[in-house]
Please model this.
Amino acid sequence: MPSATSSKRPRRVAFNEDASADEYTVTETTASSSLRNETQRKKARLSSGHTGRKSHRAVDAGDSDGDEPMAEAEDDESTPPPATQYEQIRDQDFKHLEHTEKDDQRATQRLKERPTIIGENHAADNAIIESITCINFMCHVKLHVELGPLLNFIVGENGSGKSAVLTAITLCLGGKASATNRGGSLKSFVKEGTEHASLVVRLKNQGEDAYKADLYGDSIICERWFTKSGSSGFKVKSAAGRIISTKKAEVDDIVEWYCLQVDNPLNVLSQDNARQFLNAATPAMKYSYFVKGTQLEQLDDDYKTLTQYLEDQENKLIELEENLAYLKDKYEKAVKLRDAASKSHEMRHRARVYKDQLAWAQVQEQEDILKQKERAIIAAQDDITRTEEIIAEKAHVLETIDNKIQQAEEGLETIAQEDEQADDLVREAKERYETGKQAVVALHTQEREMHGNLDNWSKTARQYEHAIQKEEQRLENINGGVVTEKQKELDRARQNEESIKGAIAEHRLGLTPLEKAEQEAANTTKEPARLLAQKRNEIQVAETSLGALNQNRRDPLDAFDNRIHQLLKLIEEDRSFTQKPIGPLGTYVQLTKTQWMPILEKYFGGTLSGFIVGNKSDQTRLMAHMDRLRIQGCPVFIGKASLDNLREPDAKFDTVLRVLKFKDQRVRDHMVINHQIEQTLLIENRAEAENVMFDGPPQNSGACLAFQEKKKGHGMRITNIRGNLNTSPITPNIAQKSRMKTDQDSQVHYFKDLISQLQVEYRELEGSRRAAEQAVQRARQGVAQHRQRTQDLARELTNAQVAINTIQRELDEFEGIDDRLQGLKNDLRDAQEKKDHYGNQYAEVAIKKRELNSGVETLKEELTHAKLASRDHKARVAKAKDKVGRLKETRHIALSEKNMAHENHEVAKLAKTQAEGSRDRQAEYVEDYVKQAGQIAPTRVNIPEGETYHSIEHKYDSIREQIGRLRQQMGATEEQINTRATQATQEYRDAKDGVKNIKMTSDSLKKALMDRLAKYREFQRHVSAQARCNFGYLLSERGFRGQLLLDHRARKLEVIVEPDKTRENGRGRNTKTLSGGEKSFSSICLLLAIWDAMGSPLRCLDEFDVFMDNVNRAISTNMLIGAARRSVGKQFILITPNAIEGRAKLDRDVKIIRLTDPRQQRLPEMIH
Model:
């Protein structure tokens, strides 16, 4: 049955602000209905449709002013059909519309007072479309429009997507494709060349009356997708993008909550509807738009459906009353027949005896079954004992194989490390050899070039020496030898200069080793500094842990993931686990000897943070909880084994197992299986541990843990593989808090010792750092001394060059006498310098070449030895891997056999449990059978020997047949008679209650319908008055006057307008006699008048000014803006192909959105 109340939130229309007269207060709740499901709406029985007899109106003869006569109504407008009974009740002969002048007067008063009542326009907290996105929609690849909260003008040329925005709003918010007048189905809106399209509308969702604000947040994102194939769907998302629903019903609920009315033809006025409404609508069509826009038609349809439902209930009530009379008669006859039934007799007594025997015969059969189940339990126990023996045997075999695998893997690890070192040696030797060869080849080429240059300059120098001898002899004969003496003095000065330059070059070579030594000394200071920082951090961590212990504030779960509390709470609340997981395992383990804490924490690794479950399903469930909380590093183990007999070493040795205490047996068994804690020795002294393992590991021991001598808290693992001791370091994490339970005093003592040891190591590192810094200082002093000597040599070179210049000036005085000799000597000096230069280079290259050749041979031999060693190591690695592989295959087989033994053991235990459960259930069955038999016969009845349940049942059936034949005259058994009487009584009572309930429901619905129809008439009255007054007010803004003639009886709406305000006596003209601009302006006034009476927060109008001139376009635009500002909190979307600037009074509440033709957007891309 449809509900009589609305689920929408209340929204008051504009004229509800007048609180001076309660009778005029109208809320949108009264103008809405919850009957929104079109598929379930029933139609009331009405007369024929709206087509029928035609009526003609008389032509007005005209008025005194000579106005044109008002045009006749269209011939195709039909008269309304005869009123149905529902319509007569609804309209009450339209008496509520008889006082139009009084209604218009009050509406006008409210209109004048509205600016002081409403106040300034402002954006609403919700029901605002924030943005629209179209993808592959119509002719657009992607169209995104951000809308303002109040007034929006969308401007653009044809094809730019203006109308697509309104079409997208209608479709995305659940509207039908046919309502857009753009296509008959969704697939027609998919862009040509694509297969899939989607629309996204973002709605503002804030304020006190937001829709499910805790679920959606500040915005609601509605997305609708559809394809060429015809499929489509919805996605409703929160402000964060999370999908909340994919059902259209959720979109309908949101639209209904905010009263968006996207299917209302006046609320979202498409381009075709706007053209038809503004220019070509007949009075009947205008009235149809009016009642649809104000929701009067929707309310009328809902009330018709309710009326039809009441009529159906009246018809149903007549049928139920007739059936009630029949049931009453049936009830009276059944009671009389029950009272007339006969009493029991001898046959009934015999039947009672047989019935008692039948009851106790079933008890005897169930007791026999119980004995069989007891024997099954004994057999299951025998199977459990046998499988336990097999498990112990397989566990011993697996343990032996594990020891062998461990030894083989440790040997493989050692060999693999050696192999990697050998490969590194080969690689390094090869690189050195190749580098040496390349250096020899380059040096050989350089040697040939130097030798050629040396020969050429040697020949040139000899030629110059011969020419100088001839010239000197000639000059000696001329000046008696003075020039020659000065020339020799100049040569000696130049030789001194060359020797100083040689000393400088030789001294310069010594700078590089000194600088390198200085850099190496500086580098050596970095490592002590790093170690000091690391050691200081370790001291701080230890002191922090000690401080926490002293303050006694340690949380047992502090060492685990900070989300472990949430995980434990989820485990506690989850009732789906077969068996509750236990963990973290560290909380179930107590360490009795605190000094082993850091080593065992590292040795156990992630096991202490793990959990143990009983089966695979529990493991999957627990891991899902961990993934949801993003907890990592907490493994989940399946623990089924129960270990009783452990093989442990001699009692004089401590083992990991002996220094631990466990709260749960499963934790101990898991540690034994995965870490061999019962066979891992603990010996504090490393030397003693090596002696114990070297002499042969004690029986039932596999490895030994010991402390390192110099590093407090650090340890090592020692194993004996084929007589070879293997050690691997155990480096604990000082910052790791203890996950195992320990004695607090012992922990305090341990951390104090650890801090003392770390401080000693810190002081040692301080000494190392100081020594390194002193070495850096010495190296820097050597560099400084070298640079001082460089400066001294530079001064000596300067003095030598001054002496050369002095002698050269003295020789210049003889210029002109021995110019030719000086020129020859200069040429000789240049030639000798070149010769010496290339000679020195050639000698150096030759020496270096011999050295490089010797080095390359050595490198080649080293490479050959490294390759041989690497080949040998690889062979050993392959052999070790093969051995490990064979052992693992053997272990896999042994593990499979052990697992199979465990499975058989679990099957046997399950069989026993099931047998015990079956035995217990059978015992309950026996007890229940005894109880039921006791209810039939309180004293146990002896079952005659040889009698069974079936034989007694046969006798019982036989005696009942005899009793039945005796009662055939009554037509039924006593039991059947009683049953029929009970059924008849119940049927009569149910029918009586049903008739009563239907009457009460119908009376309540009739009263509700009358109340709603009264509100409907009141709403119709005030909406009509509001529209009439608003229309006249809006016309007056341009100096027009006119009337809005609403005939609800004839279902017509006529508009009379007089553009010439000087003609006050004229009645006015029909809109068809107006000019195009006047007609469009009048239609805009009509639309705004109807809009003002609507309660939806959204107004959309497409191409409202197409047929207007510039004057009417500017006036209409400003009128729309003014109306929008008076509609506080409403959002307006107005579409025009014309520019807005210059013809509108714009402000911050107006947003202009310009769209570009997508073909123009792609033009630059095509050009480039």
About this structure: The radius of gyration is 55 Å. The chain is about 60% helix and 10% strand. Residues 187 and 229 are 7 Å apart (CA to CA). Residues 1-77, 1163-1168 have pLDDT under 50 and may be disordered.
